[in-house]
Amino acid sequence: MNIQQIHNNLFSPRPKSIFLCTTSEEILSYINNKEIINNGFTIRGGGHNHESYCVQDGKSVIDISGLKTYTKNKEGKSITVGAGLTNLEIIYLQSKNNPDTIFSTGECVGVGTAGYTLGGGWHLLCRQNGLSADSVKSIKIIRYSKSSGKFIEDIITKGSKQKTEIIINGENVRKGKLFEIILGSGGGNFGIVTEITYKTYNLPNMYDVEMTCEYASDKKKELIDDITKWLEHQKTDKTFTSIVRLVKFGDKIKIRILARVPEFKIKESQRIFLEMEFMKNFGKYSMSKFSPYGIGELSEYKEYVSNSDDEITRTASTQLRLNFDALKKMYEKIKENAKTKGIDSYLGSPFYYELSHQQDSNITDNSSNYSCRTPRKHKVTSAFVKKTADLNSVITQVADYFFTNNSNRNTYSICTFHAVGGKAGSGKTSYAFNENDFLLQIQSWLPENFNDKNTENNMVDWVNKFREQLMKTNLLEGAFINFLNDKIPVQDYYKNYEELKMYKLEIDPYHMIDSSPLSKK
Fold this sequence. Notes:
Elements: E1 17-20, H1 24-31, H2 34-39, E2 41-44, E3 60-63, E4 70-72, E5 78-82, H3 87-97, E6 101-102, H4 113-118, H5 126-129, E7 136-145, E8 150-157, E9 163-168, E10 171-174, H6 175-182, E11 192-199, E12 201-202, E13 206-214, H7 220-236, E14 241-249, E15 252-262, H8 266-274, H9 277-282, E16 284-289, H10 295-305, E17 312-314, E18 320-322, H11 324-340, E19 344-347, E20 378-385, H12 391-404, E21 412-419, E22 438-445, H13 453-471, E23 476-477, H14 497-507
Parallel strand pairs: 1-3, 1-19, 2-3
Antiparallel strand pairs: 4-5, 5-11, 6-12, 7-8, 7-11, 9-10, 13-15, 13-16, 14-15, 14-21, 17-18, 20-22, 20-23, 21-22
């Protein structure tokens, strides 16, 4: 268990110091000193930054994973959560306090809610409800104030006309505009988000419809036609969200289509599946009622935090507080481990440490598993399918590369089409691809504790060359900031790149916050 570790073991950063905090006051008292302001810092929540921007060599780290507050607001129509909570922890708290509503949570439940939301936040209801960033009503953020010469905490509300001391093009920036700049631009750009208020939605009557099959090399054309048929259907019908995923390990390739559909669309989805010749003959079909607070999720939560219910208590203000004594003992081990590596660590009081930094001993290294909850070596990249692109051509190009080029037999390689469009990106944010219908994600993972430098390099090259080849076809554009890849030009993530750089320079004039591609000089 390493205090400096992130969820990508390709990196072994050695930060100068790490501050584990539980309140905004602790953060402000720590960062408002000359040393931090002069040397700069990074911000870590869930630690799922694919390129280790959240923890860097020689930098101080502000670890916000101890900010674990939860409040159900009036009539349950919104919730206010601490930025240190993970998606799964909020699901758990919702199930206990507000089970008749849902919030826009991600499919990777171990991810920290702040970074997930600030980058946009894709999920399987995004076409119906919008991305996670679209559901945000307000944020609390610790940002630098040029007028006072120190960091302050500010509440930024969607649509607010209140003016700030920040001046752009000779005018004081409205808080509503600052909200639009921050949301969708990625985590760690303009300050330390400490709290987020989300709009909640009534629990929908939805079903998860799924089709899986194994790839047969002599049926490549039929499979491409089937995937094209499904994505064409998704392109025209925005009432539901789906993913199409190709998975490869060694000689095995599997195809999975998962759709979260309203009840009145089930028969139509079944009809499309039955029209797919390859999937119909070789695939397995299943359907289940969508239940975000089901027994499976709660059991997974207990396993995830490695605590039983009697070790989890809530204060009268509905704050989540993990067992202090157990965490205190864990911290001592972490601190000792850090000390042997020459890393200073600071303890906030009281102290709650994010248990997701532990290895999950129950996840094995077999060929069918990878997990965003378990630190493993991996590489990720992305691009959006152009609105005008011919889908059959896109899928053919993807399939040709995916089926014929393998990074290594030991890697677990994945290619996923995420449906976007609909209400995804409907809010005014820096997420720029609201007109696109599909987001393509390419990733490759190594088994846990796998150490071979040649295999690692091959894995990274495979992912980067995959995107490089696809971009040459002129069928794709841009990239998704939540699927960060350092080989992608920073401007590809945004359509308002020059505006973001201008705001970054004004809000962070001394280059103190160094947690994102926008921080590159």
